[in-house]
UniProtKB/TrEMBL annotation:
It comes from the Eukaryota. GO terms for cellular component: phagophore assembly site; phosphatidylinositol 3-kinase complex, class III, type I; phosphatidylinositol 3-kinase complex, class III, type II. Residues 277-460 form the Atg6 BARA domain. Belongs to the beclin family. This is Beclin-1. Residues 190-231 form a coiled coil. Residues 146-273 form the Atg6/beclin coiled-coil domain. GO terms for biological process: autophagosome assembly; cellular response to nitrogen starvation; late endosome to vacuole transport; mitophagy. The gene is atg6. The lineage of its organism: Eukaryota, Fungi, Dikarya, Ascomycota, Pezizomycotina. It comes from Diplodia seriata. Residues 31-84 are annotated as: Disordered.
Length: 475
């Protein structure tokens, strides 16, 4: 046989080999709990648990099924079917089943049939009895039999621990029961508790009424809150529409302001440009008259020559061309037409046309004026002439005299020139080059340019006065 816990082979005690029916019954009855063995419960003033719990436990216990146990005890060689019989754990053995059978006797009073067979049968019966005993013991307890001594010691130790825990639990229940019995209220405490209960119920009723009133107020406030929420949503929509319109207006205003600023900036720039242009003397910038030593210059070109400084005729011709252009520009600016002369500024080859009208021109039809005789006077010189041929400068001299005549007419028109002009002389120097010293001719050219500079200054002053008379205002 084997231990049912550690599965090691075990040796049965000798006392189990010869079991009589009384010993077998004693062993089997010791595992059956009896009503006489249960201790009577002490009289308690109150039950440890409620009656409904007791009724539920009895109702469930009455419908409980039989427990199922896993048994793996090896059986003897005989009776193989009895080992798997499902009701073998609950078979009640009688004395006839336990007592070994007597050897068979021959009817004629002779000896037994076989002594060896009886010995083996006796051993088999003993093993069968022991096996049934273990099965009965295993069925009536929660421990599978048989077990070895070591497993028995371990089992006893575990049961002792469980016993200690159960003892502590019992002591705790006893202490709780003692305290519960000690806490039984007196009659006065019961009356006071009932009075407090009535007061609590009255307070509960008042609280319920107050709660109902508060719930009604809450319902009214909820309705009001819903109305306010609806109004708030309407206001939100109005606010959204307002801000949308406001943003659109702000965008339009910003665009307008940006356009206004752009126009104002452009206007300010134009005003500053106009003021700068008004302060700018276009005549002085176009015709710059200065001096270079003894020579008067116009736009950097020297007008005149001396024996010490022989200025080229190309430069002199260009200077006379700029001077002719200056006088023609001033006359056109003031709207003056020269009498008997017409200036033709053409750079280094500028000319002055002399207009000779016939004497009978005044008697002709005014719708068909007579054509004047035009004489071209060259305001330039082709170069140095051979010695003794200065009279060949006559055409150049006539052109310069005609220029002085035009300059004199401008003086009579309203320009106050600093020097007096009489025919071919300006101040006391003759403008003619023939039979004249170069220094005197150079001084006359210088005085001519000074008078032209006065013309420029007077024209600029007139133009500035006209601009000041019509000021521009910022819009």
């Amino acid at each position: 046989m084997y231990c049912q816990k550690c599965r090691t082979p075990i040796k049965l005690d000798g006392s189990l080999e010869d079991l009589n029916p009384a010993a077998f019954k004693l062993l089997t009855d010791s595992t059956t709990p009896s009503a006489q063995q249960r201790p009577l419960s002490l009289h308690q003033s109150r039950p440890a648990y409620s009656q409904d719990r007791r009724d539920a436990y009895d109702r469930v216990s009455s419908r409980a099924s039989q427990p199922t146990f896993r048994r793996s005890i090896p059986s003897s060689r005989h009776g193989r079917e009895s080992r798997h019989h499902p009701s073998m754990s609950f078979v009640m053995l009688t004395d006839s089943q336990v007592v070994p059978q007597a050897p068979h006797i021959v009817p004629d009073g002779g000896r037994p049939i076989s002594a060896g067979v009886d010995g083996n049968q006796d051993m088999s019966d003993k093993m069968e009895t022991v096996q049934r005993l273990f099965e009965v013991l295993s069925a009536r307890s929660d421990i599978d039999q048989p077990i070895c001594v070591e497993c028995t010691d371990m089992l006893v130790e575990g049961l002792q621990k469980r016993l200690g825990a159960a003892t502590k639990e019992r002591d705790a229940y006893v202490e709780y029961l003692r305290q519960a019995n000690a806490d039984i209220p007196s009659e006065e405490e019961v009356v006071q508790a009932r009075r407090q209960l009535e007061d609590a119920r009255a307070g509960e009723e008042a609280a319920m009424k107050e709660l109902e009133r508060l719930e009604r107020e809450k319902a009214a406030m909820d309705d009001e809150l819903l109305a306010l929420d609806a109004e708030a949503r309407g206001l939100d929509k109005e606010e959204e529409a307002f801000w949308r319109e406001r943003n659109a207006f702000a965008t339009t205003l910003a665009s307008f302001q940006s356009e206004r600023d752009r126009v104002n900036n452009r206007y300010d720039h134009d005003i500053k440009q106009a003021q700068r242009l008004q302060r700018t003397n276009v005549y002085n910038d176009t015709f710059t008259i200065g001096h270079d030593g003894n020579f008067a210059t116009i736009n950097g070109l020297r007008l005149g020559r001396t024996s010490a400084v022989m200025v080229g005729w190309e430069e002199i011709n260009a200077a006379w061309g700029q001077t002719c252009l200056l006088l023609a520009t001033v006359a056109e600016k003031v709207g003056y037409t020269f009498k008997g002369y017409r200036l033709c500024p053409m750079g280094s080859t500028s000319t002055i046309e002399k207009l000779d009208f016939p004497p009978a021109a005044s008697t002709d039809d005014a719708s068909r004026p007579a054509k004047p005789k035009v004489t071209v006077l060259e305001l330039y010189c082709s170069g140095d002439l051979p010695l003794g041929l200065n009279f060949l400068h006559r055409r150049f001299d006539n052109a310069m005299v005609a220029f002085l005549e035009c300059l004199r007419q401008m003086d009579e028109f309203g320009f106050k020139l600093p020097y007096t002009i009489r025919k071919d002389k300006i101040r006391d120097a003759s403008i003619k080059l023939s039979f004249n010293q170069e220094e005197t001719w150079t001084r006359a050219c210088k005085d001519t340019l000074i008078c032209c500079k006065y013309l420029l200054a007077s024209t600029s002053d007139m133009d500035q006065k006209q601009r000041s008379a019509t000021p521009t205002a910022r819009r």
